Prior knowledge:
140 residues
Amino acid sequence: MLCGKDGSPLMARRLFSEMICRELKFLLPRVLVFDLVIYIISLPVYKLCAEVPLGLLAGTAVMLLNFIILGLSSERAVERPIASAKGYMFGSYMLRLLITGILFFAGIKCPSINLVAAAIPQLFPKLAYTLHAALKKKGG
């Protein structure tokens, strides 16, 4: 076993920082619940067709990818001078916008993906953090 200077075992290198992992642990269970609720709400209209769950899955995957890119770029931007950080964040924003655009294009062109179901998960982080803050404030 590999050990650090203090004798403690070395942890395997993480793919993401502690902050990103913490935020993903917060967000992922809530997103899955939101997906399930949206799917159940859509059942009377869309029955058991595969378009809605595929749209939710694609939208959730893109939302999580965009969330990770935002976290990585934010962490890297704070290590840069202001002018460089602004450009770096703008590039990251354009990349996230392009990824979202590809999702919407796929939703339009691919009949097996429901466009509305793919778009809804893009709102999940805002919903999750707003609900968390409101419940935390209400609870004391």
